[in-house]
Amino acid sequence: MSETYLSVPLTEQHQTNFFECGEGKLDNWLDTHALPEQNVGKSRTHVWVDQGGEYVVGYYTLSQTTVRETDDEPGLFKKIRPPKFRGEEAPGILIGKFALDQSLQRQQLSLDLLADAYLNAYDAVRLVGGVFLVIEPKQNRERLRKLYETFGFLSIEGSNRMFLNFEDFNKGTPFDA
Questions:
Q1: Which residues pair with 99 in a beta bridge?
Q2: Burial of 92 (C-beta count, 10 Å sphere; 0-12/13-18/19+)
Q3: What φ, ψ does residue 46 adopt, rounded to 5°?
Q4: Which helix (H) or strand (E) holds 61?
Q5: Are strands 6-9 and 89-100 parallel, antiparallel or unpaired?
Q6: pLDDT (tens digit, 9 = 90+) per residue, 5-31?
Q7: CATH for 6-170?
Q8: Are 20 and 27 spatial neighbours (Cβ–Cβ below 8 Å)?
Q9: Contact 94/62 with Cβ under 8 angstroms?
Q10: What is the DSSP letter of 102?
Q11: For residue range 139-176, what is the model confidence (pLDDT) as tens digits?
């Protein structure tokens, strides 16, 4: 997505130990959990690498999810169900982790990384089906929530989750590309 950084699936050859986004849990997860979770099929980590193709400077994870009506959140699915959609659940893609190295923050690259995640998620739903792109930003992360809103994500009332309907989004983006 960015002209400076190459977007590729994470491999053992990538250097993750120098990555620092400013949130230790995300740094540690990339270095110690990303490949094991990928190897068992739990999620797929996509990374931005430097021009040498070795050092990770950004990453996000994608995994399958289902948005469904639950006892914990009654009426949730009815609020976001696409028109003409039958049933009480719909498949989608979850952006589980999302981080940019501190050296790239405040350079307007977060939106590019999010667009990259969207394109990979959309490729997946075109292959296997899906309705939503879902993300659950941490509480008290208003700047991050604003980024997702800029991209077109909608908040789900009574939940930290946000969603984007692929079909609606593809009709036109809410920002100037």
A1: 59
A2: buried
A3: -110, 135
A4: strand 56-68
A5: unpaired
A6: 889 999 999 999 999 999 999 999 999
A7: 3.40.630.30
A8: yes
A9: yes
A10: G
A11: 777 888 888 888 888 887 777 888 888 887 777 654 44
DSSP element (H, E) containing 90: strand 89-100
Residues in the chain, total = 177
- The amino acid occupying position 54 is E
How far apart CA 46 and CA 156 sit, in angstroms, is: 26
Structure tokens at 94: 């979850």
Please report the pLDDT score of residue 176 as a whole number: 41
Quick one: tokens of 63? 């995994």
The two three-digit tokens of residue 164, written as one number: 């984007």
Residue 58's pLDDT is what? 96
CB within 8 Å of 105: residues ≥ 6 apart? 21, 22
pTM summary value: 0.84
Other CB atoms within a 10 A radius of the CB of residue 18 amount to 13
